[in-house]
Specification:
By secondary structure, this protein is α/β, with parallel strands linked by helices. Strand 3 and strand 4 form a beta hairpin. Helix 1 packs parallel to helix 16, helix 5 runs antiparallel to helix 6 and helix 11 runs antiparallel to helix 12. Bound molecules: flavin-adenine dinucleotide.
Amino acid sequence: MVESPSSAAPSSLKPSRQFQSRARLVVIGGGISGTSAAWTAAREAVKQELDVETLLLEKETVLGGKASAIREDGWLFETGPLGYLDNEPIVDELVRGVGLEEERVPASDASSHRFVFLDGRLKEVASHPVRFLASGLLSPRALLRAACEPFVRTKRDGLDESVWDFAARRLGRDVADRLIHPMVLGIFAGDAKRLSLPSAFPIMAELERDHGSLIRAQLARSRARRRGTLPPRRSSLFSFRDGLETLPRRLSERGSFETRTACVVLTVTRREEGFLVVLEGGASIPADSVIVASEGFSAASLLADAAPDVSQALAEISYPPVYVIALGYGAEAKRSIPRGFGALIPRGAGFRSLGVTWDGHLFPGHNAEDGLLVRVLLGGTFDPEIAKLDENAAAAIAEGEMQRLFALSVAPRFLRARLWRQAIPQYELGHGARVQLVDEALARTPGLFLAGNALHGTAFGKAAARGVACGERAIVWLAGRAPKK
Ligand SMILES: Cc1cc2nc3c(=O)[nH]c(=O)nc-3n(C[C@H](O)[C@H](O)[C@H](O)COP(=O)(O)OP(=O)(O)OC[C@H]3O[C@@H](n4cnc5c(N)ncnc54)[C@H](O)[C@@H]3O)c2cc1C
């Protein structure tokens, strides 16, 4: 199937553009998005009895992309995503489709306790309104301002707005500074003043548009849930017994497609019909359809020839670096570190950490016996210099800051660091226009699809959903062209 640069393609491997022989779909990138795309496409092809060969190419030696865990001495260190929210039903379908229900692990009830470091100490962000009012997170004046939210005029100018501006406009500057800014740092490692509200938090924009107020929207939705006209809210965190990478790997094991790891794609070029996927080393693979499921910056470089407009738009998306450091403590740390999800740390609080997740509280299976695993995140938009540190230096910062935060007198038994040089795509102001531009450009390039998390949601579940959608679309596109089996 692979054409060597110097030799003509053997007859059985002739480009499949004639569509008299098998059609070929190539998926580039073996993270959750690419594996979901390949799995879905292969399953749809079988269902529709289409003669389509699906091939997944991944440059690393293992699948999973950002979903990647290190297991050592009984600890399970998730170096990327910690879990996924069940608000994307498509992930459940994938889980069922590959028989992983038994290995799925819900986060413990510790996940409902979230903290923020404010005024020199950790404070719990209570979800119950009465406890929230009493928590001291906001001054009485700030609470009064937030309570005026239902009377704030709805924004209808259609212009983009930053997350910070949205929060300040609707709930007041104190909420924007003390709660929203650190939250955006914790989720996106990004700047609330630069990220686009409709792109980063589309649900918030919808609530304002449909109800004119976030508070009114919450009340209306609670009523609808009680009446049963709206399904119960789903926002529980899940992982798998052996970590999140279990899902992409199982999709590859169970899917009717071929996976090649350690296979670096250099570029995708267009041919008279279809595409040529050029690999490192000079070999190339003819394809009738291509799904690019690599990171935005990688897709930008791959598509410079086949879709220059898409390439240019993707190249503009920034991906700041993030260091993830795991610290495994002995049982004594459980006395100092409260049970919960973790803590956000605002800028200016005297720490370099963006936040801490208490993985061992959420997923006790991540702990070695009697231990407690926590992870510290460093870097992001405000601290790109972090990428210059080696792992020991980054780990030393994390260890020192954990000691200060929790007055810990013990050193961790386990200490590991992982640097993602280009970690999370930033949906900055203008992102919506970029998405539209890319969609229009892709419509002019039939057979080419863009999965991944660069455009339509940065979370694991969103990347999976985008992969599934692209897998389905690729088969719809191939259906009129590929021969029946
Ligand atoms: C530190 C961190 C923490 C996160 N925490 C969470 C969390 O708790 N919950 C959550 O929902 N989300 C979280 N996310 C986001 C989540 O990890 C991503 O949305 C998701 O994993 C993206 O999957 P993907 O398949 O789109 O991309 P990736 O996982 O990035 O996969 C892309 C793949 O493409 C491959 N590739 C790239 N270029 C080429 C090439 N030229 N040839 C062949 N292959 C190539 C790469 O090697 C990689 O395997 C986190 C992300 C990071 C970085």
